[in-house]
Amino acid sequence: MATTTDEPSDPTATIRGVPLSRVALYATLLALVGAYVSPLYSGLTTAFKTQDAFRETSPLLPPITGFTIDPWLIAGSELASGMINSFALTIPAAVLSAAFGSLAAYGLTKVDWRGQAFLLALFLAAVFIPYQAVLVPLRQFWSMIGLTQLHDRGELVELIVTHIAYGIPICTILFRSYYQTLDDELIEAARLDGASIARIYRKIVLPLSLPMFAVTLIYQFTQIWNDFLFALVLLTNRSNYVITLELNALAGSMATNYSVQMAGAFIAALPTILVYVLFGEQFAKGQTI
């Protein structure tokens, strides 16, 4: 009598040799990517459409008919002054906040003095102060100083100093966590050779800080460039408007022209995108150290 043996079946279900769990994972990831990219794609297609094409076609359809670059030209001309003011604000504020944060972190980690723990606690607490909590005293403070009475660009100076002061705490915390990983024996050897605190920072600590400078500069550039609240409170002269205020004015003055608004949004976001593209490798190195 012949007997048959049942071969054990594979408990893992497959689709054309690919495990079903992996198919489900990839499908979920594709759905998430589509949910993230679709608003960007629809905004980009809208920016190249005429008003008639926008009203008559779906935002997801490419501008095959009704293609135009006029929204980009209009938005570019309207945002040009705000773009220049934003660069004049963001570059010095980002550089100085990172530089002061590096110096403060060096003093809190590699220099021994009384009161370090208390000062570090103040820096840490300052990181968690929301913008909304300081708007009224900030406006009152700059009204007493009166920089706007000295120069037409005084409001931009006020905004630069505000962002420097607000960026120093987070830069200090980031640099401090990095400086704690530096070899103390190297710094101690420099001290034994007679190097001063300033010389040790300039010759040893600063060159080793370049990856963290990339992190803090990219972070600060993005935060300051995208700021709207401080600019709204401190800037009253239209000639001093930064890109976020000009973009808001663009949306208000052309409420029905969505093509211009979308083009303006992409123009305003372009510098931060370029910063991440150009310095993304340095940013990743600084994050992994």
From TrEMBL:
Pfam families per record: BPD_transp_1 (PF00528)
Annotated localization: Cell membrane; Membrane
Annotated TM spans: 23-41, 87-106, 118-136, 156-179, 200-221, 258-279
Domain ABC transmembrane type-1: 83-279
Keyword Lipoprotein: no
Keywords associated with the record: Membrane, Transmembrane, Transmembrane helix, Transport
Top-rank taxon: Archaea
Gene Ontology annotations of biological process type: transmembrane transport
Protein's recorded name: Glucose/mannose transport system permease protein
Organism: Natrinema salifodinae
